[in-house]
Amino acid sequence: MDKKLIGFSVVFFAAFIVFAAYMFSDGSIARFTRAAEDKEPSLSNSLIFAWPLQLPADNQSVSEITVFLRNAEGTGLFEQPVKIAISHGKIKESQILTDTDGKASFHISASTPGTSVVEAFVRNKRLAKTISVQFR
């Protein structure tokens, strides 16, 4: 009977130590057990937004262009270089690295009225979606 109790106690304490180490660690065990994430950008799953869509052409008002770079599963991709191209006006930032959510924000303005078509690029490939901003 004493051997069974000692054996059970050893198993219990070993399990407790493993559990406690997992709970107080930095999650390194989770990194080994988790499936590898896809780091390849999906040109069709990535998104592009602009706000405002209409603004004065006074060279001071800016529209914020936000690109969300995602993989095929819809997960945001971290530290990926994103560029935008516009058909009218000027871009404040030439290239931005995405944040932990896969987000990169740019600012555009114009001094003359017109419509600017905004395209985003990652690894020299154009995202499937574009957006238009109107300068009045």
From TrEMBL:
InterPro entries, per database record: Big_1_dom, Ig-like_fold, Invasin/intimin_cell_adhesion
Superkingdom, natural source: Bacteria
Record key words, sorted: Membrane, Transmembrane, Transmembrane helix
Domain Big-1: 55-135
Keyword Transmembrane helix (UniProt): yes
Transmembrane annotation, as ranges: 6-24
Pfam families, per database record: Big_1 (PF02369)
Keyword Nucleotide-binding included in the entry's annotation: no
Family to which this protein belongs: Belongs to the intimin/invasin family.
Name the record gives this protein: Big-1 domain-containing protein
